[in-house]
Each structure stands twice: as structure tokens, then as C-alpha cells.
Design brief:
With 307 residues, the chain is an all-alpha fold. It has one domain: MetI-like (MetI-like fold). The radius of gyration is 27 Å and the shape is globular. One of its GO terms (biological process) is transmembrane transport. Pfam families: BPD_transp_1. This is Raffinose/stachyose/melibiose transport system permease protein. It is found in: Cell membrane. Keywords: Cell membrane, Membrane, Transmembrane, Transmembrane helix, Transport.
Length: 307
């Protein structure tokens, strides 16, 4: 009796590819992310989802006593002068930070991008405020903004201004504090964009007779569009949710002159015990930041494509 050996049956390529994808989906490397995902879900996702529910209640933040109030909290927001005033302050701060911080950051990036012997040291100096705690920066600038005519900024400029106590000046003083801290961050992003501009383009423009401003306008600036998009996005989000510097420097004062949406929702929750109302303000702020960010992304991305 003769035994015959059957040739091995070849697996079709589609089946092999499907098995490979299935094996990759259960690869051990994915399991390393599970602990981090669980922590993120427990610390961020779950509180956010529960917070949406509390925005429709009158919970005080203590105990189990709460009742569903529907849209009452959101109607109260529209009639709350403090919230509306803080919204105006938040928008003014955001615009000021957006324009000045990125303008200063671009100038610093252009300066340290030049062939200077001290450019590395200057980069470190300009970026160093970014790594300092915002609360520490606020306390530092409270001394700089001291109303004493012989000390701080008044003594340096020979002025007599209550920088944080004058309602007409306090908001812009906060903006200056934030710009001082984060202009170096914008500088680094612009500097990364400048490093990506090919030198050949500048050399070709110089051969064509283009001056310094013309080379910046027609060569450098269009190629900085991705860096500009990132900076504008970060500046806008940071300005809209600004809290630390305001809370540590003025606590929203004098009066409500520097109150922002973040400080208002904090006080509503932990000072006045209106946790449900505070959560409603936080939800409105989150949706507002998301909407502004989406509009910015759409506009700036279309600008990048156009250039």
C-alpha cells in the first residue's frame, strides 16, 4: 500500500492579510496603553460626562440633595451681568494675548534666528519664563506692578499707576503678564518654522533683487503658515480658559474688572455653593472654546492651502 502526501494548501493572500490584522489588533503592545486609558477615563471622561448631567440640576456640591431644573441654569447665565461681563473680559484678554504674544514671539524668533554668537543663550533666556509656574509669575508681577511710585514698574518708568487696582488698567496688566510668560513659547514654534524655510529660496530672492522686507513678505511669511496656525490655536485656547494668573494676581478684582469665565465658575462652585450653575457655565465655556477652535482650524487650514 502506497502512502501519498498531499501538498500543503496555500492560504490566499486576503486571508493572510486578515489574520495579520487580527493578530496586530490583539498585539501585546496595545495592552501597555490600557492603564493610561483607564486613568484618563476615570479622571477626565467620567467627570466630564457626569458634569454635563449636573449642569441641569441645582446641586450645591455637598450631599445628595439635588433636583432637575432643565435649562434654568442656562437661562440664568444669559441674565447674569457678572457672567456677561466676565465673557467680555475673557474675549478682550484673548484678543490682546493673541495679537501681542504672537507678534512678540515672531520678532523674538526672527532675532534669535539671525547669525548671532549669543543666539543659543538668548533662546534659553526668552524661553525660561515658560517653565515657571503661572502662580509664581503672578506673585512676581504683583511686585512689579506695585502701586509704590518708587518701586517696581512705576519706579522704572517714573509713573504713579495702580496697575492692578485701577479698573481701567488691571485687565491689560494681566494681559502683559501672560504675554511676558508665553511669548517665548510662541518664539520656539515660530523658530521651528523658520528653520524649515529653505535657504535656497532666500538666495534666489536675493539674486532677483528682493530686499529684507520683501523676502520676509513673499518667502518667509507664507512658509510660516503652519507655525502661525499652531500659535494662534494655542493662544486662543489659553486666553479663553485663563485662570491661574487672574486668580493669583487680582482674584477678579478690582470689583469685576478682571473677572474671567474661569474665575466666575470657580467662585460659583466653591464660594457660593452653586455647583450646578457653575457646571453649566463650564459647559458653555467648553462649547465656546470648541466652536472657536473649529472655526480657527477651518480658516487657518484653508489659508495654508491657499498659500
Amino acid at each position: 500500500m502506497t502512502l501519498t502526501t498531499q501538498p500543503p494548501v496555500e492560504t490566499p493572500p486576503a486571508v493572510r492579510a486578515r489574520r495579520a490584522r487580527r493578530a496586530a489588533s490583539f498585539s501585546p503592545s496595545w495592552w501597555f496603553a490600557v492603564p493610561a486609558l483607564l486613568v484618563y477615563a476615570g479622571v477626565v471622561l467620567y467627570p466630564s460626562i457626569v458634569g454635563v448631567f449636573y449642569a441641569f440640576t441645582d446641586w450645591s456640591g455637598i450631599g445628595e440633595g439635588k433636583s432637575f431644573v432643565g435649562l434654568a441654569n442656562f437661562r440664568a447665565i444669559l441674565g447674569d451681568e457678572q457672567v456677561m461681563g466676565s465673557l467680555g473680559n475673557t474675549l478682550l484678554l484673548t484678543v490682546a494675548i493673541l495679537v501681542v504674544q504672537n507678534g512678540v514671539g515672531l520678532l523674538l524668533a526672527l532675532g534669535v534666528h539671525a547669525k548671532l554668537k549669543s543666539r543659543t543663550l538668548l533662546r534659553v533666556i526668552f524661553f525660561s519664563p515658560v517653565v515657571v509656574s503661572p502662580v509664581m509669575v503672578a506673585f512676581l508681577w504683583k511686585y512689579v506692578y506695585t502701586p509704590d511710585p518708587s518701586a517696581g514698574l512705576n519706579g522704572l518708568l517714573g509713573l504713579d499707576i495702580d496697575w492692578l487696582g485701577d479698573p481701567s488698567v488691571a485687565l491689560w496688566s494681566i494681559a502683559g503678564m501672560v504675554v511676558w510668560q508665553y511669548a517665548g513659547y510662541s518664539m520656539v514654534i515660530f523658530l521651528a518654522g523658520l528653520e524649515g524655510v529653505p535657504k535656497e529660496l532666500h538666495e534666489a530672492a536675493m539674486i532677483d533683487g528682493a530686499g529684507t522686507l520683501q523676502r520676509f513678505r513673499y518667502v518667509t511669511w507664507p512658509l510660516l503658515a503652519p507655525a502661525l496656525t499652531i500659535n494662534l490655536m494655542l493662544s486662543t485656547i489659553g486666553g479663553l480658559k485663563l485662570f491661574d494668573q487672574v486668580f493669583a494676581a487680582t482674584n477678579g478684582g478690582p470689583g469685576y474688572a478682571t473677572e474671567t469665565l474661569s474665575t466666575v465658575l470657580y467662585k460659583q462652585a466653591f464660594v457660593y455653593g452653586k455647583f450646578g450653575y457653575s457646571t453649566a457655565i463650564a459647559l458653555v465655556l467648553a462649547l465656546f472654546v470648541a466652536a472657536v477652535s473649529l472655526v480657527q482650524i477651518y480658516y487657518l487650514r484653508s489659508r495654508e492651502v491657499a498659500q
